[in-house]
Write a structure and sequence with these properties.
Elements: E1 2-5, E2 11-18, H1 23-42, H2 46-60, E3 67-75, E4 80-86, E5 92-95, E6 100-103, E7 122-125, E8 131-133, H3 137-140, H4 151-162, H5 167-178
Helix pairs in contact: 1-2, 4-5
Length: 179
């Protein structure tokens, strides 16, 4: 993950996960991050970022190595986020008014898939007190001593119970719930 402040005042938000473990996965992630940094300086629109990163993963990763990725451009002045996703789990927005959660669905194939539909770009607006929650499958798939995964139900309940708190407190509550 990374936060990429832009001269315009916008902030790029990147969150990705490469399949597998070890050196090969680490190299793919490093190459994707390098491409991300170059692309954001050239054209930071989420769709353009996804297209470039997809080509990089296709050209450099061994077959069967895929990467899920979320990229958004947050404009603090207008309180909007333009975003696109390549197979990454849907982020959530905790809506302070009504204390509810809203998944930011932006379905797409992971990076590294040759035949695909074009990436879609979406926009979401925030109001004061709203929270954006990004996470990886490691949180959802964490297994307890009885072999039960943490799962989406507990994840969503924890967000609903903690969404009004600071980002640091939401993170602490999620990690404590998983433990």
């Amino acid at each position: 993950f990374d936060f990429l402040p832009q001269p315009s005042g916008e902030i790029g938000i990147a969150f990705g996960d490469v399949s597998g473990h070890g050196l090969t996965s680490g190299i793919v992630m490093a190459m994707a991050k390098s491409a991300l940094l170059v692309q954001v300086d050239n054209d930071p629109s989420p769709r353009a970022v996804m297209n470039v990163l997809n080509e990089i993963v296709i050209r450099t990763a061994p077959k069967r190595i895929l990467m899920t990725f979320f990229f958004g451009m947050l404009d603090p002045r207008t309180q909007t986020l333009r975003f696109s996703s390549a197979g990454h789990l849907d982020p959530y927005v905790f809506r302070s008014s009504g204390r509810r959660i809203e998944p930011l669905s932006s379905w797409g194939f992971p990076l590294g898939v040759k035949r695909r539909e074009p990436f879609r770009e979406h926009t979401v607006e925030f109001t004061a007190g709203d929270r954006l929650i990004l996470y990886s499958d490691g949180l959802i798939e964490a297994i307890d001593n009885d072999g039960e995964p943490f799962g989406f139900e507990r994840f969503e309940k924890t967000i609903l119970d903690s969404g009004h708190l600071s980002a640091d407190d939401i993170k602490k509550n999620l990690l404590n719930a998983v433990k």
